[in-house]
């Protein structure tokens, strides 16, 4: 089941049909059984089509993120930090028992599908980071999945790891969507994550990875997030990226970022 959020209601896509739902996104996340809650309303008359202006699939949830969970991310972080002496720092993070977790966005800061993400005005080296994103209920259980774009300023983080919040958390730095895939079972390791970046209708970067390359189990990441933290309305957790463009690439204003994950769909955003 795929859940879409619009200005006036939630919609569910099931068996190639759309149905309107009579509860809020927060109600969905707080439910003991979201799939059963949605299934109870599948007898309503089908909706003709998805509206073009979807909202981000989020209610009152915070968005958090995990870092250095793929070997490619480890290598990229070591490269960007080499002049600051931080290379071994990220190697230790990759190998440590405790994962790197950081706050990413509040709900009002999350960019919707089709809306504009941003690069920092004081950054010179910016990239999108395509990430499988977990929807967690208030008990820390995974109830769904969406696509996340963790916009990042590589030069700022590379200058000093303590600058991570500034490199990661700013207006327009987080996009989610286009929907939430409700799923009772984990996604298969063969699930593919793909990204394509277009500039003036020309492809300037493409990349892909699979969940088989994710070093940490999603449930492990969720467990660490919920240690000594409570989330009454649940939370989102980005699981890190296995796709990082080469060191000679930086985003430009007007670029179109297209991120696709098997079974979920495609999230598109343009750089403001």
Keywords:
272 residues, 2 domains, alpha+beta, five-stranded mixed β-sheet, Fumarylacetoacetate hydrolase, domain 2, ten-stranded mixed β-sheet
Description:
This protein has helices at 25-30, 34-39, 71-80, 87-95, 154-159, 164-168, 218-225; strands at residues 2-5, 10-14, 17-21, 46-47, 62-67, 100-105, 116-117, 126-127, 130-136, 142-150, 152-153, 174-182, 192-199, 202-210, 235-238, 256-261, 265-271. It is an alpha+beta fold. It contains seven helices and 17 strands. It has a ten-stranded mixed beta sheet. Strands 7-17-16-13-14 form a five-stranded mixed beta sheet, with no helix packed on it. The model has no long low-confidence stretch (mean pLDDT 93). It starts with a strand and ends with a strand. The protein has two domains: 2-47, no CATH class; 62-271, Fumarylacetoacetate hydrolase, domain 2, CATH 3.90.850.
């Amino acid at each position: 089941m795929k859940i879409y959020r619009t200005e006036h209601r939630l919609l569910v896509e099931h068996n190639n049909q759309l149905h309107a739902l009579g509860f809020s996104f927060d109600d969905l996340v707080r439910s003991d059984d979201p799939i059963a809650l949605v299934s109870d309303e599948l007898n309503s008359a089908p909706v003709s089509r998805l509206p073009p202006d979807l909202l981000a699939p989020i209610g009152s949830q915070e968005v958090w993120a995990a870092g250095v969970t793929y070997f490619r991310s480890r290598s990229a972080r070591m490269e960007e930090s080499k002049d600051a002496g931080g290379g071994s720092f990220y190697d230790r993070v990759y190998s440590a028992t405790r994962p790197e977790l950081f706050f990413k966005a509040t709900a009002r800061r999350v960019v919707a599908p089709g809306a504009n993400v941003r690069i920092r005005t004081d950054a010179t080296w910016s990239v999108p980071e395509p990430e499988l994103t977990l929807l967690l209920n208030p008990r820390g259980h995974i109830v769904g999945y969406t696509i996340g774009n963790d916009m990042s300023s590589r030069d700022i983080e590379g200058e000093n790891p303590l600058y991570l919040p500034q490199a990661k958390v700013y207006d327009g730095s987080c996009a989610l969507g286009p929907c939430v895939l409700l799923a009772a079972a984990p996604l298969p390791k063969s699930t593919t994550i793909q990204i394509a970046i277009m500039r003036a209708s020309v492809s300037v970067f493409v990349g892909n990875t699979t969940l088989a390359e994710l070093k940490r189990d999603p449930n492990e990441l969720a467990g660490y997030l919920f240690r000594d933290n409570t989330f009454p309305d649940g939370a989102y957790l980005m699981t890190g990226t296995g796709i990082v463009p080469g060191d000679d690439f930086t985003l430009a204003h007007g670029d179109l970022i297209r991120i696709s994950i098997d079974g979920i769909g495609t999230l598109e955003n343009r750089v403001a």
